[in-house]
Design brief:
The protein has 116 residues and is α+β, with helices and mostly antiparallel strands. It is built from five helices and five strands; from the N terminus they run αβαααββαββ. 33% of the residues lie in helices and 22% in strands. The chain has a five-stranded antiparallel sheet. Strand 2 and strand 3 form a beta hairpin.
Length: 116
């Protein structure tokens, strides 16, 4: 619980969802910092790391799978929520790769997000 609280406090400052204020109230996003391939079913059937972790070809946990796909498969960092996928700032996201996070901020409506 302490780890989640620390992430919740640090993440708004560290992780940007390509935000540009479009309204007055920030939104809260709960999800996992992942790679675009797994999150958008490029090499996954479940919008997760499940298939890659079973094969052990891209790491043994969500963090190693995310980093592998970013480095070697051309992926981008995303925030995966139960219904949506949001592109995020790769510099800050690397520190939270494969982790459950809470992000508070403003969504850039111009860049929008990918809806599943």
């Amino acid at each position: 619980m302490k780890r989640m609280a620390a992430v919740a406090l640090l993440l708004p400052a560290a992780l940007s969802l390509s935000f540009r204020p479009t309204n007055d109230s920030p939104r809260t996003f709960h999800g996992e910092t992942a790679d675009s391939q797994c999150s958008m079913n490029v090499h996954s059937l479940t919008r997760s790391h499940q298939e890659m972790l079973k094969s052990k070809s891209m790491g043994g946990d969500a963090t190693s799978c995310t980093l592998y796909c970013i480095r070697y498969m051309g992926g981008e960092f995303v925030l995966t929520t139960p219904n949506d996928v949001f592109y995020v700032d790769s510099t800050a996201a690397a520190h939270f790769a494969g982790q459950k996070v809470v992000v508070v901020g403003f969504l850039d409506e111009v860049k929008d997000h990918t809806r599943q």
